[in-house]
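Question: what's this shape?

___
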Amino acid sequence: MLKTLPALSDYDYELPPELIAQRPLHDRADARLLVVRRERQSLEHMKFRDLPKLLNPNDLLIYNDTKVVNARLMGVRVATGGRWEGLFLRFDAQGCWEVMSKTRGKLTSGELLQLDSPQGPTGRHLEVVGRTPERTLLVRPVLSGRTETAFTLLDEVGFVPIPPYIRSGRMDEQDRGDYQTVYAEKPGAVAAPTAGLHFTDELLAELTNRGIEVARVTLHVGAGTFKPITSENLDEHVMHTEWSCVSEDVVQAVQACHRRGGRVVAVGTTTVRSLESAANQLADGRIDSTGRNDSVLAPFAGVTNLFIRPPYKFKTTDVVITNFHLPKSTLIILVRTFGGDDLMRRAYEEAVRQRYRFYSYGDAMIIL
């Protein structure tokens, strides 16, 4: 008898609103860590700072070094004085920005948008260019004559794009540091790879001193990570694309780790998707989004739309460190596919029962 594949409603759960963390802990490593052991089908409670005790010198820890940009934009339409709000997504070779936009009325080509900053109104403007085929807005910064990039301008006028479940999306200055990993390096994300928010410089040093090798990939987390799944049939969901890079050095480190009997420990679902995308490449350079092909791990740089769901078979990832995710999201589907459905249901029930802190600024779990 064939096993019925899960549907979207299978990934729902009840979460008391007060368990949604609104701020990180003062010391990131003080977060709670739910230890999920697949072989024993067991759960254990520890602190994130205990992570070195759970890893072995043969293991390879891989994290996502993307950096969150100040992608939330606010301002007014010069022609009407009406409020305008947008979310920067990416820029193209012609210097245009692609922006998700929200305003009353229809924006027209040539219209100017004056930008606010966290400090108040500025003299900086965006000119409306048009729309993409996906109906997102195309704008061009009106440059001041000085040398600047999209990211330096965003640093000046942008707001931290914290999710709406954190203080209704209202950032403050504290979020500029809080919503960034200590190893963030390559700007381009509009959301943080939140499993990495628990690491401190001291904890990373302790892992290195223990002989645990560390490597980094890049996946620029896009706004699509929050895109809700609208179909009960998971195969009908169109996964968003995100830019990812797995270097030759990382490929060699993964292969060497497995040869010596170590485990590849992925920090966060973004790292998992990067590694598995690199392992799912086909001969023509495309990504096998079903994960059912026996492909070979190779360097990868490009966009991926890999949607990890049952019956996906993981090719590179042995251990996952992750936060607690929203119901019915692609992230919780990935985690339950990796950890095993019954065990991960128990883990989430236990986390709610033990009053763990959920979502971006919340506690973590490690799936061994």
Observations:
- The CA atoms of residues 130 and 279 lie 37 Å apart.
- The chain has a mean pLDDT of 92.
- The two ends are 30 Å apart (CA to CA).
- The longest strand covers residues 120-131.
